[in-house]
Amino acid sequence: MNAVESVIAELSGQLGPKGLLTDVEIATRPAWMGNGGEDSAPAVLRPASTEELSAALRICHAHGQAVVPQGGLTGLVRATVTNGETLALSLERMNAIESIDPVNRTMTVEAGVPLQVVQEKAEEHGLMFPLDLGARGSATIGGNVSTNAGGNRVIRYGMMRENVLGLEAVLADGTVVSSLHPMIKNNTGYDLKQLFIGSEGTLGVVTRVVLRLRQLPRSQNIAFVAVPDFQTLTSLLSRIDAALGGTLSAFEVMWKDYYELVTTAPAKNRKPVTTDAPYYVLIESLGSDQAADEARFETALTEMFEAGVISDAAVAKSQAERDAIWAMRDDVAQNARNAPIQAFDVSLKLDDMEAYVNEVNERLQSRWPKATNMVFGHLGDGNLHLITGVGDGSPEARHAVEEIIYGCLRPRGGSISAEHGIGTEKLPWLPVSRSENEIALMRTLKQALDPKGILNPGKIF
What we know:
This protein is of the alpha+beta class. Helices cover about 35% and strands about 20% of the residues.
């Protein structure tokens, strides 16, 4: 029996038959988007409680056994990959909604609860959990916290960080740190929850979370508009935000190539507008009175049209039409038609975006004349997604594409990761967006909380 097998045997005694999977049980589990699933891990730990997780990590810490926390396996930066020497850790059995407090507008949940379950439970009480993203049915709250997930409504409600009031986490040595505070205002020293939000499971394993809920909007208005140029696009953002009086909840932009991709066969989406424009925008407003908000929404669009800020518009008149517009924006799978593809998630100032995308396209097509680059994103919060179809998929070609994407970002002071994290995919490029002193401080935190380096080793650094 080798060292890993010895640890697995000890963990099996601690967690029981449901708490630890090996061999055939692992082989049948899912992997997604190249994350690897648990198919290369010798075992998957599945604790049913914080206490079981604490005991398991104490064993792993004593043996120096590496553990890779995994959520819904919907990440895009290979932050959950394992190997033959690392154990996978899933909190899928810790999936309870422990309480919901409509008065204080909070919900306390275990980390394994899927995002969509939280959204639906909040709605039952006339409330909303505003974080929303395409993988809502699979992504877990623990994963959302660990990656500081963003998604579609950051412009109004912020990222996951702004929607977490408190949390509980287990450190590498099994110590349980419980900061399950339900208050928005809690200015009592260091905000410990922030150590774990966005740390990708490298500092501790999040087990329970107190979520901040909002009142469920009573109105939803959506339009899909065409915009004649980028300067007008940024003008539209500020003008429509002002015109809607704080109810703007999404401002999702598609470059023309992406719009054409998701509205041509085999895609099933239909074009809401047929104007030949360089940019298209999904505008969403959430409010309190459908009739009044709809009137204000349409008045604002009319003003934008008369001012030449938009060249064409389609306004959704039913829930089916609203869903269809969002489905078009979320139909990212169409990019597979341009394989081999690489997905990038960057952020930078609005007034740098047009020049940045143009430079990236010029450099890609200079090297690969048939290169494609589909650009879309949450432009209202400075986040762009770029999905390139370039080269032969070799490591050399992939690295060359990364050099272009991140090389063009460096002089503009942007971020190599707006919302997906670093994982291993972006590990070599962290210095583009972080200084030596910042990285040194991150390493200090890692050393302090995980001195043996057993939690998600090789990620971020």
